[in-house]
Amino acid sequence: MFARCRSLAASLVVLGLAGCGAVDSPTACDRACLIGIGDSYLAALMAHEPGLAPLADDLAFVENTTPTQVGRGLWVSASAIPSDYQIYVPDETAGTIGMMTLIGRRMPEGIPPALLAVRLKIEGGLITEAEHLVDDVPEVVNLASLVAPRPNLIAVVPENERMSRAELIAIAASYYEGLDTSDSSLVPFADDCERQENGMITAAYYLEPAAFDSEDVNGNSPPPVARDCAGQMDSARFAYIDSIDNRRVFAADPVQGLVMGLSHFRQSMTRGPLEMIAADGSRVLWEEQREPYDLPAAHIFKITNGQLHEVEAIGIFLPYQSPTGWE
Question: Is the residue at 39 inside a domain?
Answer without folding.
Answer: yes
